[in-house]
Amino acid sequence: MRSSVPVTPGGGQDSREVRLTILCALARAMALSPWTIAPPAPSPTFPDMDPQPDGVSGALDTVLTRFAERVRYIGVRHGLMGTDVEDLVQEVRLRLWKALESGEKILSAPASYIHRTAVSAAIDLLRRRRARRETPVRLSRPSGIAALGESPSADRLMEEMELQESIGRAVETLIPARRSVVKMYLAGYAREEIADLLAWSEPKTRNLLYRGLADLREALTRMGIGPEALQ
Amino acid sequence: MTDERLRQSYDMLLGVRSGEAGDRSHCPPVERLAGLLRREEDEDSRLALLDHVMACPFCQPEFELLRVAVRASGEQRAPDEE
Predict the structure, then answer these.
(1) The pTM is what?
(2) How many beta-carbon pairs below 8 A join chains A and B?
């Protein structure tokens, strides 16, 4: 959703209190001190927003901008394309402004509010895409095509495709624990990330990964693909 | 064959698969993907789920989007955030 959101938060002590609570939640969630938030700035995203006399809206927008920058920064590192990142930012933005508008009370710990909002926004975004049968955007990790040169020959391309298929088949022959770890590794995950997701110790993860990669190379060798393949 | 070469080929394989007709009848619901990040299921289930996600050109970017949402919103144990 890219259009600006009409926001006319109600006045009064309750509304201001809710705004301040959300502001503090955002600041704490991003490890900022609420007292270091920059002065309010004009909002290009919500041009129709009523200026608030206490500057809360401007400050909130500043913090939202920080959140957006953080999403973009981390998103790029995770290989996400711009569309995914921007959709997530807009979804979170929309939810927070709706909360402001409705004067929704935040009962949980402030630091967890933005966290829950962001995760539920992402889940809903993905649900809607699935309902519309939208194809997810491909991760923008470096492609091996470039490593092959500017104009690989047809033979070279065919060999590469066969190698890809062989790797895909070989991975599936691994035992389950090693297979999942190897797939994560091949998909670009660092050992620490794999350990974190599986709640494993670093030595256990390292052990399973190394054994899994060794099994993978053995399986490839059995398929006639040796260490020199398409170097 | 180096690890990097294996990764490149695997990445391209997923790229090829993403261009094929997308049958998502075997894909887990979004809630289970999010549950992976909260370690909601037992280890065997998590392994099976990750096994699918890491080989599925549709689920993988969805899973990454969820990870980004978690990390950008202040999740503390992200190892590569800084």
Answers:
(1) 0.70
(2) 193
